[in-house]
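Tokens for chain A. Residues wanted.
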């Protein structure tokens, strides 16, 4: 069915250097503009990510490159966002917006990049993205095809509903039946093995259930909120051990407190690291100068 439009609808998607709205940059932006009557116009930009404060190319997070396949050298010679911001604004100015899960990431990232580039380039961009209607196709998908236990039971267990939904016993039995139905449907892809099934979709990166601590790529616990966000728990313990006491006295779940306490105990009980050569040299220099104490 063709869209019933009274004004253009601009579908868009971005790729970026990473997942931080405030510090990462767009490296690819694609627009598909659909007009009343069905005409389509397509425009895609490859963008050189630019650190305006440091006046240099911003590197792409290797984890982002693994997903989007773009590397730093692929963008050399491409325009910076500040070079195209006026053209981007022209595509946006008379249209509403559409995307897939774009309201949570793509739209905030686009707004941030436009503001940043306009300020740097001294250009006035008369586009208020907050005033535009935003159609999120993923939201419609989840609304029309709910991903709850009742929908799963209907899909995997013969199209029927189960009785007494939302009672603990009925929901538990239904969950058991759904898992068996999934194994029947996806037998070529799912192994009937608990270790395998427990890893489907990847293990959670959360250390605690609330996600206040997460594992990084090296398997280290990293603080995931507040002033120490993205620092390893070990580094925080070494530089500000009182932070761990603050966690214990703060408004956090017992599980979060327990995980911080576990890490603190581990760090506290580890044998001290041998002094580095530089530390020994500094200590010797202080001794020789008579200022050891």
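Reply:
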């Amino acid at each position: 069915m063709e869209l019933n439009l009274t004004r253009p609808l601009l579908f868009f998607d971005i790729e970026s250097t990473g997942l931080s709205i405030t510090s990462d940059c767009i490296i690819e932006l694609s627009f598909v503009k659909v007009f009343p009557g069905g005409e389509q116009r397509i425009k895609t930009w490859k963008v050189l990510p630019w650190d305006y404060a440091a006046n240099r190319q911003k590197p792409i997070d290797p984890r982002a490159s693994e997903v989007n396949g773009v590397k730093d050298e692929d963008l050399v010679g491409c325009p910076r966002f500040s070079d195209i911001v006026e053209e981007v604004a022209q595509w946006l100015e008379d249209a509403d917006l559409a995307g897939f899960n774009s309201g949570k990431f793509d739209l905030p990232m686009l707004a941030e990049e436009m503001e940043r580039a306009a300020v740097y380039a001294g250009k006035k961009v008369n586009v208020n993205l907050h005033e535009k209607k935003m159609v999120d196709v993923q939201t419609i998908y989840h609304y029309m095809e709910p991903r709850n236990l009742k929908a799963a039971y209907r899909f995997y267990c013969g199209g029927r509903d189960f009785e007494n939904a939302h009672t603990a016993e009925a929901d538990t039995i239904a969950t058991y039946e759904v898992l068996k139905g999934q194994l029947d449907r996806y037998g070529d892809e799912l192994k009937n093995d608990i270790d395998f099934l427990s890893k489907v979709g990847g293990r959670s990166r959360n250390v605690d259930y609330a996600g206040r601590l997460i594992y990084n790529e090296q398997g280290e616990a990293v603080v995931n909120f507040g002033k120490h966000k993205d620092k390893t728990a070990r580094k925080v313990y070494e530089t500000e051990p009182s932070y761990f006491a603050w966690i214990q006295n703060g408004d956090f779940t017992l599980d979060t407190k327990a995980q911080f306490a576990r890490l603190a105990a581990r760090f506290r009980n580890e044998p001290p690291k041998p002094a580095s050569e530089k530390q020994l040299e500094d200590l010797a220099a202080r001794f020789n100068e008579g200022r050891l104490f």
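Strands lie at 9-16, 26-34, 40-46, 50-51, 56-57, 96-99, 134-136, 213-215, 221-223. The chain has a mean pLDDT of 89.
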